[in-house]
Design goal:
This protein is about 50% helix and about 20% strand. It has ten helices and ten strands.
Amino acid sequence: MMIAGFFFLIFFTGGNAFTVDLHDDQQMPNDTITMEKEENNNGNCGYNAVVKFLNLNKDNNNYTLTRPVKNYRTVTEVLHLMKVFGILDMKETEQIFISYIWVFLRWKNEHISWNPKEFCGLESITIPTELLWMPDLIIEEMTEKDKATTNPFLTIYSNGNVSFRNDHVVVSTCKMNVYKFPFDIQSCNLSFKSMTHTPREINLKTLENDKVITRWTKDLIETQDEWEFIDITVNNQTSDLDRFQSMLVYTITMKRRSVLYIANFILPILFFLILDLVSFLISDSGGEKLSFKVTVLLAVTVMQLILNDILPSSSDKVPLIALYCIGVFTLMMLSLLESILVMHLLDKDSATENNKTDGDQSLRMKKCCHCAPVYDASPDETESVTKEDSSSKLMEASLNLKQVSNEPEENGKTMNLLGSKRKDVKSGYWTRIVKKINKIFLIFYITTLTVFLGTMFSLWNSENY
């Protein structure tokens, strides 16, 4: 009965009972396979999985020997971006510009790629720079070795892009135009190019335009020394010094902060000039005016020596501030020479007056000697005088009395002439000349000073130079 019931069941179900059991037995292996795949994916979620997949190691030279292209005709496009973090120093005498910059690079490595889905969505990893090829970029104006620490890592992406960021302390040459010092605007270039590759191998391009780079730099910059950052412009050029190479030229434009130079240099010289102008009020009779002018002139000379240590000797034009010092020095020197001339004329006038005074005194002494009476005749001679002689002497005595009566009138006339001569001597010829010279020179001095200062300040404020 049991056997018959069993076969009846088989015949009734058509064998589906065994089919159900078989499906249940097959479901278990599928779940196991799914769990095994998840475990394998968890093992590929680390950075080392991508490194092993790409076979990145120091022994594998395929990534470092040559440019990362599959066809040598393919040009490696390097995207470049520079930001100025700080303006450290500007040496005018040596014409050296020291800056601290950030550099960003991006290029494509055709030997690198992976599917992020196979590595838990991992799209980028960071590896040492020694494991991959990097563009051999240099700064053409750089004169000293970079003192900043080189970034030892770079970032690679699943699509083959490689990005690298590095900091540089750049000591570079910069031809400066100090014609309008200290109101000058300087432009220094930093030119990036490949050391060996031609434009058919490496093509440099900028990541952003000038306005964006300028805005980013203004937000980033920390120190500017005595300079005020204005903007950055980028030009893509071709260098043909050695061989044709693609080159990016960043032009950094800066304006000097001139407040300290105005307070410490320009105004003191202007004050010395004003003191020299006020010295015209000092009397010309003594030596105080001359010594004062010499002292002020020496002070301006010291300021010129200080200026000589600031400005470069290789400037194409004489700087305006040097012309300013030379003009002030010239005006003071002319003022000093005028004072020397005036004192010489006054001394000449006083010498003439002293000579006339001595001459008048000697004349008076001679007249007094001639007017003195002589009483030397002896009594014997008077007794021997005849009557005729006595009558002639009486006639001469009468004539002498008439002359004596006329002498007071002549003496009055001579006294009037002497008085007029004394007035002439008192006023002096050269004294009148000195007064005219002082007046004319003062007008010339003020006019020349006004024109000179107006011209200097207009040249400093002009835009074209």
